[in-house]
Amino acid sequence: MEKPTVTIYTDGAARGNPGPGGYGVVLMSGNRRKELSAGFRKTTNNRMELLAVIKALEALKIEGSHVEIFTDSRYVCEAVEEGWVFSWERKQFKKKKNRDLWLRFLEVYRKHKVKFHWVKGHSNVKENERCDKLATLASKTKHPLIDENYENEQKEANNTLF
């Protein structure tokens, strides 16, 4: 049986960087469509861009799916398509931000056949605009989640003597 092809659009947002943030995802396959989003009380735009991709891939139920991901995040797209993330992995993400999310990404990424495509943000690409709206609305939620890894890293950084 042939594995399904899934088209995914993702976006992340942070109001302030860091600040309240959120992600938005649109998954499509055949006549099926699903939207995902969540908001966080304090995070960064790059973390939300990457988390959107992770959440999208984690939502896939059939391992080995063919996945086309469209994102306006050069950070995520180029890290994968240019192979930088694999170099970072070999170096154990030394001096790289978002190690926790990149490790989580690699685990789920390797379960599928994934191709990234960069799209210009705010350029009237319908599904990218929808993801932007989902991410922005999520960043304004009254009951945000806590990006624990990010907040703990910030506390540790602020507790140094120098």
Strand and helix map with partners:
Layout: E1 5-14, E2 19-29, E3 32-43, H1 45-58, E4 66-71, H2 74-81, H3 84-90, H4 99-109, E5 113-118, H5 126-139, H6 148-158
Parallel strand pairs: 1-4, 4-5
Antiparallel strand pairs: 1-2, 2-3
Structure description:
The protein is α/β, with parallel strands linked by helices and 162 residues long. The protein has a single domain, classed as Ribonuclease H-like superfamily/Ribonuclease H (Nucleotidyltransferase, domain 5, 2-Layer Sandwich), CATH 3.30.420. 40% of the residues lie in helices and 28% in strands. It has helices at residues 45-58, 74-81, 84-90, 99-109, 126-139, 148-158, and strands at residues 5-14, 19-29, 32-43, 66-71, 113-118. A five-stranded mixed beta sheet has the order 3-2-1-4-5. The radius of gyration is 16 Å and the shape is globular.
Fraction of residues in H or I helices: 40-55%
Number of domains: 1
Could you give a short account of the major beta sheet? 5 strands, mixed
Alpha plus pi helix count = 6
Strand and helix order: EEEHEHHHEHH
Q: How much beta, percentage-wise?
A: 25-35%
Radius of gyration: 16 Å
Would you identify the CATH architecture? 2-Layer Sandwich
Mean pLDDT: 95
Structural class: alpha/beta
**Would you identify the CATH H-level superfamily?**
Ribonuclease H-like superfamily/Ribonuclease H
Distance between the termini: 59 Å
Query: Could you please say which CATH topology applies here?
Result: Nucleotidyltransferase, domain 5
